[in-house]
Amino acid sequence: MRLSTSDVAGKKRGSGTNDIFEKCRNFTRPGDLQSAGLYMYFEVFGDREGCGPGEVRIGKRKVLMFGSNDYLALITHPKVKEAAAQALKKYGSGCSGSRLLNGTLDLHVKLEADLAALMHKQAAITFGTGFQANYATLSALTEKGDVMVCDHNLHASLVEGALRSPARTVRFRHNDMEHFERCLENCPPEEKILIVSEGVFSMEGDIADMRGITRLAKPYGARVYVDEAHGLGLLGANGAGAAEHLGVLDDMDIVMGTFSKSLASVGGFIAADRTVIDYLKHTARPFVFSASLPPASVAAAGAALDIMRHEPERRRNVLRVAQMLRDELRVRGFSVLPGETAIVPVVVREEMDLCRLCKTLLEQGIYINPVLRPAAAQNLLRISCTAAHTEQHVDRLVSTLVRVISELGIEI
Ligand SMILES: Cc1ncc(COP(=O)(O)O)c(C=O)c1O
Predict the structure, then answer these.
(1) Whose CA is nearest to atom 14 of ligand 1?
(2) Confidence grade of residue 13 (pLDDT, cut at 50, 70, 90)
(3) What is the pLDDT of residues 292-311, one digit of tens each?
(4) Could you read off the pLDDT of 153-167 as tens digits, one per residue?
(5) Domain covering 78-310: architecture
(6) Ligand 1 cavity residues, CB under 6 Å
(7) CATH, range 33-65+312-408
């Protein structure tokens, strides 16, 4: 019997070596960590009914949360919840359309005007997530013949945006102004330059040298893009972020922010000149070809923005608690990265030690995120402080950490 061509193809294809799912079957790392009892991801949290400030629920247990980016502790604020509930009641659960067509509500327009004013820009545009905002903007705004000069430690959303763009990308050593200047000098004069940095770096929690960046950028006619995901709500006289804190907000050409951290919701935004925003509104594909933010999310972000404006003591409290924690940990010999933001990263040399540490802390009722290389240059216990944390919380965290480190025999 002779096999037909399709039989042969079928046999070959069925043999298992050319199955597109093969990589999934070979992807055993999560399972290996689970078997070792060290898997730290997809923890399931319950509702927060009956939880105190700074607490969340896992199963029946209340756990002290030191891993949330809800920096101003507004997720459960009555005004934020009420704004979301009212929007749900009045507008329904979604918009069922792109902003470009049937998906723009008066709620979106009002929030965008408020964000533009906060960032001292002519206009703003909201996206479904902060990731989308970065990815969409970098990929829409740059073209062949342009160059993006980027800090080395950028968030994945910025990296993906740069990868999607036909422009050239150059990365300067993290926050290193000498190297940054050399990168600028090496750009051919005909290239149009966009400089990209985070205001507060998401893993290490340090602040970008935005003053140095703007000073060096000016002679090159370069435009500056800052991601304020972790600075918004915390830094600056009005909580606009690191650029405001450093007195260079007006020198930023594009400010990006997210609602998923200080603004207690989901979504992202870009603030810039009106011409830039109009361009993005019509050309940024993840904006044009995706449904708009639902009313409840927009209203929650708007209410959080309002509280942020009227209660500056919230950001002062977060920064005070974070500094207290930094000081206490350093006194006890922990290696804490330098910084002055809500993010307090502690270096734990060995990856397995970090996983064991996080697991044991959770058993002791404290949740903290592990950051494993290469997400950061070193393995980090990334502690994030919020306005809900108190001195007592800091004491409990520090004493538990000291005890657990010693019990597990982890070198710090
Ligand atoms: C620096 C930075 N930019 C952007 C994002 C994306 O924000 P979102 O969670 O709203 O998608 C994050 C989120 O972790 C971030 O840390």
Answers:
(1) 202
(2) low
(3) 999 999 999 999 999 999 99
(4) 999 999 999 999 999
(5) 3-Layer(aba) Sandwich (3.40)
(6) 129-131, 134, 155, 157, 198, 202, 227, 229-230, 258, 260, 268
(7) 3.90.1150.10
Ligand 1 atom closest to 267 (CA): 10
Pick the closest to residue 233 from 76, 386, 18 (CA basis): 386
Domain ranges of the chain: 33-65+312-408, 78-310
Q: In testing the pocket of ligand 1, which one of 68, 75, 131, 134 has its CB within 8 Å of the most ligand atoms?
A: 131
**By alpha-carbon position, which residue is closest to atom 7 of ligand 1?**
130
Distance CA 112, CA 242 (A): 20
Q: What is the pLDDT of residue 1?
A: 47
Q: Is the pTM of this model over 0.85?
A: yes
Residue 8: pLDDT band with limits 50, 70, 90: low
248 or 5, higher pLDDT: 248
List the structure tokens of 119: 């960032």
